[in-house]
UniProtKB/TrEMBL annotation:
Keyword RNA-binding in annotation: no
Stated name of the protein: Phosphoribosylamine--glycine ligase
Cofactor field: Mg(2+); Mn(2+)
Pathway assigned to this chain's UniProt record: Purine metabolism; IMP biosynthesis via de novo pathway; N(1)-(5-phospho-D-ribosyl)glycinamide from 5-phospho-alpha-D-ribose 1-diphosphate: step 2/2
Length: 420
C-alpha cells in the first residue's frame, strides 16, 4: 500500500520512521516532509493546507491511505476531502476536529456530556468578558477560542493582567474567548485511538511547556517529554477514560460527528480526580516521539484499523522501558528563532541507540541547517526515566549546533519520584 504522511515536524519524523518499518507499506510519501523524514519517505513539496494538490497527488501515485500529522489541515477539512474521494485517512473530520479548533466547542460539549473540566464562560466581546471576570477568583485562565499554537492562553494572577489579556484578545473583530477557572494539580497527556465507536488507549506522556529549566519563562509548543506518565496510574487512566474520553467519543458519535484518529487529552490530575484541560485532534509534538520510541506493534496496521472502523479487538504493545525526548531549539525561540545555524554530529548522537528526530531543519547544499524554532528532538530509552534522561543528554552533547539550546531538566518530576 502507498501511504502519504502530511506534516514536517519532529512528530512526523517519528511517525515516518515507524510507518517505514511496516510490512504493509509499499511506498511512503511525505508532504512537505523535512530532511529527517526524507530518510524514510519520498518528500513532495506540497503544503498540508493545499487540499486540491494533495488529492491530485494521491490519485496520481495510487495513495490509498493518508496520515495527517498536524492540526491545521484537520481543522480545515483535509480528512473530509480525502474521504469523499474514497481515500482512507488517519485523522478526524473538520466537525470532530473542532475539539481542538474551538475551545468553546469543547467546553460546551463537556457541559452537555457532564465531563469534568474547569468551570467557564464563553465571551464574544470585551464588555461581556469584563462582566464575567468578576465571577472568577484569581488566578483566572483566559483563552483565545481558535488555534493558537500553544500561545493563546494567559494565566492571569491579577485583575489588571486579566484585563490586559482580554483587551489584547478583543483587539480585532470577530474575536471569541473562554474564561476559565484555574485548576491545580499535575498535568499528564493521555492518547487514545478511536474509530468513532471502539477505542484503544495508546500511551501517556508528560510535556514540559515552559521554555526554561524549572518550568519558568514563556510557554512553547513543548521543550521535552517522557512516556509513560506514571503519575497517571492505571486507576486514574481508567477514570479519565470512563469520565472524559469515552463520554466524548459517544457524544460526538451521537451528535453526528464521529471522531476517527487519535484523541489527545490534556488532563489536570486534581484532588477531585482527572479534569480535562484541552483536547488535541492529533499526536503531541514532542509526545509522539516518545510514544513511537516505545511502540512495539505495527503502526501502519493500527492506524489503518482506526481509519477503517476496525479497531474493536485490536491490541498494541509498548515497551515497559520509559522514553524521554529533549527538544533542541534555535536561540530566540519561542520568539523569533535564529535561522540557518549549522548542525553536525547527528550520526554520532545516534551511534548508541538514541534517535534524533528532525523538526525545523533544511538542507543547504550538503549541510543541514536550522529553519524553525524547535529544530531537533533527541530521544532515548532506558530502564528508568533517570537513565533515559542521561542517554538523551549524552546524545544531545554529541551534536554540534552553536545556535541551539535546550532545557537540562526534562523528566524532573518523575526522576524526583523515582529517587524519592
Ligand atoms: P492549553 O493550550 O489549553 O493546553 O493551555 C496551555 C497550558 O495552560 C496548559 O498546559 C496548562 O498548563 C495551562 N492551563 C490551561 N487551562 C488551565 C486551567 N483551567 N487551569 C490551570 N492551568 C491551565
Ligand atoms: N506538546 C504539546 C502539543 O503538541 O500540543
Amino acid at each position: 500500500m502507498n501511504v502519504l504522511l502530511v506534516g514536517s515536524g519532529g512528530r512526523e519524523h517519528a511517525l515516518a520512521w515507524r510507518l517505514a518499518q511496516s510490512p504493509l507499506l509499499d511506498r511512503l510519501y511525505a508532504a512537505p516532509g523535512n530532511p529527517g523524514i526524507a530518510e524514510h519517505a519520498e518528500c513532495v513539496a506540497i503544503a498540508g493546507t493545499d487540499q486540491a494538490a494533495l488529492l491530485a497527488f494521491c490519485r496520481e501515485h495510487d495513495v490509498r491511505f493518508v496520515v495527517v500529522g498536524p492540526e491545521q489541515p484537520l481543522v480545515e477539512g483535509l480528512a473530509d476531502t480525502l474521504r469523499e474521494a474514497g481515500i482512507a485517512v488517519f485523522g478526524p473530520s473538520a466537525a470532530a476536529a473542532q475539539l481542538e479548533g474551538s475551545k468553546g466547542f469543547t467546553k460546551d460539549l463537556c457541559q452537555r456530556a457532564d465531563i469534568p473540566t474547569a468551570g467557564y464562560v464563553r465571551v464574544t466581546s470585551l464588555e461581556a468578558a469584563r462582566n464575567a471576570l468578576g465571577t472568577f477568583g484569581l488566578p483566572v485562565v483566559i483563552k483565545a477560542d481558535g488555534l493558537a499554537a500553544g500561545k493563546g492562553v494567559t494565566i492571569a494572577s491579577s485583575p489588571q493582567e486579566a484585563d490586559a489579556a482580554l483587551a489584547a484578545l478583543f483587539d480585532g473583530p470577530g474575536a471569541e474567548a473562554v474564561i476559565e477557572e484555574f485548576l491545580t494539580g499535575e498535568e499528564a497527556s493521555l492518547f487514545v485511538l478511536t474509530d468513532g465507536t471502539s477505542y484503544l488507549p495508546f500511551g501517556s506522556a508528560q510535556d514540559h511547556k515552559r521554555v526554561g529549566d524549572g518550568d519558568v519563562g514563556p510557554n512553547t509548543g513543548g521543550m521535552g517529554a517522557y512516556s509513560p506518565a506514571r503519575v497517571l496510574t492505571p486507576e486514574l487512566e481508567q477514570l479519565a477514560i470512563d469520565t472524559i474520553v469515552r463520554p466524548t467519543i459517544e457524544k460526538l458519535a451521537e451528535e453526528g460527528m464521529p471522531y476517527s484518529g487519535v484523541l489527545y487529552a490534556g488532563l489536570m490530575l486534581t484532588p477531585l480526580g482527572p479534569k480535562l484541560i484541552e483536547y488535541n485532534a492529533r499526536f503531541g509534538d514532542p509526545e509522539c516521539q516518545v510514544l513511537m520510541m516505545r511502540l512495539e506493534s505495527d503502526l501502519l496496521e493500527v492506524m489503518l484499523a482506526t481509519a477503517e472502523g476496525r479497531l474493536a479487538g485490536h491490541k498494541v504493545r509498548f515497551s515497559d522501558d520509559p522514553a524521554l525526548t529533549v527538544v533542541v531549539a534555535a536561540r530566540g525561540y519561542p520568539g523569533t528563532p535564529a535561522a540557518g545555524g549549522a548542525i553536525t554530529g547527528i550520526d554520532t548522537a545516534e551511534a548508541h541507540g538514541a534517535r534524533v528526530f528532525q523538526a525545523g531543519t533544511r538542507r543547504d547544499g550538503e549541510a543541514l541547517v536550522a529553519s524553525g524554532g524547535r529544530v531537533l528532538t533527541v530521544t532515548a530509552t532506558g530502564p528508568s526515566v533517570r537513565e533515559a534522561q542521561a542517554a538523551a543528554y549524552r546524545a544531545v552533547d554529541r551534536i554540534a549546533f552553536a545556535d541551539g539550546f535546550c532545557r537540562r531538566d526534562i523528566g524532573w518530576r518523575e526522576i524526583a519520584r523515582e529517587e524519592g
